[in-house]
Design a protein that fits this description.
26% helix; alpha+beta; 201 residues; six-stranded mixed sheet; 12 strands; two-stranded antiparallel sheet
Length: 201
C-alpha cells in the first residue's frame, strides 16, 4: 500500500510599505518561531513589523553595546539580567518588542515563572537601548522609545550614529539630547554602568 506524503511549500511574499499585516499574539509567536533569522515585532494594534538582518557597521556597533552591557551585568548579577537584540518582550499594552539591548531588575525577573522566562518575556524592561541603522526611520524609533517609557521603562538610550547624537529617555521626564557624547551613564537604574561610545558613534 502506497502512502502519499504532503509537503508544504514555502512562498515568499513582498508587501509594499502601504500595506500592513495584522496578526494575533498567537500567530505572532508562531511566525517568530518559524523565522528565527528575522527580528519580528508587533505593535499594540497587531501590526507585524519585520526587521531584516543588520549590515556590518550596525552589527559591529551592536556587538560593542552588548559586550559592554554584558560585562557590567556579569559583575552585578545581584542587580538583574541583561538581554541581547534577539529577546522578545510582551509589553503591558500588548505590543511585542525587541530592543537592541535591555536589562531587567533581579526582583522583576525573579517574579516570573520558569515558563514565562523561556518564552517572550511578559514585561517591559527597566532599561533599553535602541541603535539607529541606515534603514531606520528616526520618528519610528522615537515613537518606540516613547512606548517603552509609557509601559514602565525607567531609562532608555536612542543612539543615532547617523547624527552623532544620543536621546536619553527617563520615566516622566523630558527627552535629553546629547551631541557627540563620549560616554553614557546608567545613572541610578544601572548603578556604575558606563557605556563608552568611541566605537559606536
Amino acid at each position: 500500500m502506497l502512502q502519499a506524503s504532503l509537503q508544504e511549500d514555502t512562498l515568499s511574499l513582498e508587501l509594499p510599505s502601504s500595506i500592513t499585516l495584522k496578526v494575533t499574539e498567537e500567530q505572532f509567536q508562531e511566525l517568530a518561531k518559524a523565522n528565527s533569522n528575522l527580528r519580528l515585532e508587533r505593535t499594540t494594534t497587531g501590526e507585524l513589523i519585520v526587521n531584516p538582518p543588520t549590515g556590518g557597521e550596525s552589527g559591529k556597533r551592536n556587538l560593542d553595546i552588548s559586550t559592554q552591557l554584558g560585562n557590567w551585568v556579569e559583575t552585578h548579577l545581584e542587580l538583574g539580567e541583561g538581554f541581547d537584540s534577539s529577546t522578545g518582550f510582551i509589553l503591558p499594552n500588548g505590543a511585542n518588542r525587541s530592543p537592541d539591548a535591555s536589562w531587567v531588575s533581579r526582583e522583576r525577573w525573579q517574579s516570573l515563572t520558569e515558563i514565562q522566562r523561556r518564552g517572550f518575556v511578559p514585561l517591559c524592561p527597566d532599561f533599553v537601548i535602541e541603535l539607529r541603522s541606515d534603514s531606520d526611520s528616526l520618528p519610528k524609533l522615537q515613537a518606540k522609545m516613547a512606548e517603552y517609557m509609557t509601559n514602565g521603562t525607567k531609562l532608555g538610550w536612542l543612539i543615532d550614529p547617523l547624527q552623532k547624537q544620543v536621546e536619553i529617555y527617563r520615566f516622566s521626564q523630558e527627552v535629553e539630547v546629547l551631541k557627540n557624547p563620549s560616554q553614557l551613564s546608567g545613572e541610578d537604574v544601572l548603578s556604575g554602568f558606563v557605556l563608552i561610545l568611541k566605537r559606536i558613534i
